[in-house]
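Quick start: what a row looks like.
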Amino acid sequence: MRIGLVCHSNFGGSGVIATELGLELARRGHDVHFICASAPPRLVVGKNVTLHVVTTPVHPLFPNGEFGLALASKLIDVAEHLDVVHVHYAIPLATSAVLARDVLGKRAPKLVTTVHGTDVLTLGLDPAFSPMVRHALERSDLVTAPSRFLAERAQSLAGVTVETFSNFVDTLHFSPSSAPSGRVLTHNSNFRSIKRMEDVLEIARRCGDAKLLLLGDGPERASVEAFISKHALNNVELVGERRDIVDALQSTRVFLLPSEVESFGLAALEAMSCGVPVVASNVGGIPEVVEDGVTGFLHRVGDVDAMANSARQLLDDPELHARMSKAARERATDHFQIGPIVDRWEAAYARLLEKKS
């Protein structure tokens, strides 16, 4: 099959999943085309992989460029090479794909839209954007979400059937280290307010001599640095954005994810695949990934006392940590391996093309 993948070119989970999906499809012999503003961080262009960069010209009428229209034009340009376009984010990516589809008419490839969170939970509820989000989902041939939680929200928003295709992890790459982990806590995100970065720091502060690794970057960076300075924390390392985070996760004893909401929790899954128990908020799609009391601990959003207590237990109790580490790895390998989930994607694309013919 000839498959186009449209995603954001940043370190967020939607771009990671789109990239890993495309690379696995290419390894299976499919002709895969990435259509993006730039190369996603984890993309390696090789056999069966083509990158189409969407340039956004600046014009007096569009002093900041107009990516949505430029993306629609690029999709029109490459449509003859594609059987399916799989868009990862409803707005603006799927709205651009719908516009391209209207221009192409019968020549348009089948359209799959995967919602990932903000497009439904935030933008989808904003009157300025909600009509366009609903329209994009209504005009897609298949709409999917990575968790049952998000699928239900998307169905409620747009009144369309939304199938759940779980996110996945390469369990061969994200694997435990034979070396014992130290007293290291880790958090990985895009440092947005919804990630509750001060909660991450406060949990770490209450864990005494434990080191905190902060992977990622984003708009809350200044507040993170201010908190570190205010509390004179000398055990926090701002690692920044990294293409490969396996070595950091392998050195980690506890992964922290105290978010306001998560549509899935890919960062937690990657940690679990490395045998790292997770302390997180009991919210959104996280309980579909992290089993409370088995692969980690889940607590009410903002309950820093409880989260810090759970983190300390995992730091200080070797038997508890070993049991949860083993369970975390087993859950990743039993339920979230890349192979079976990409099998489902192949079958879904094939069904759409059968309908087209």
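That is the whole record. The chain has a mean pLDDT of 95. The radius of gyration is 21 Å.
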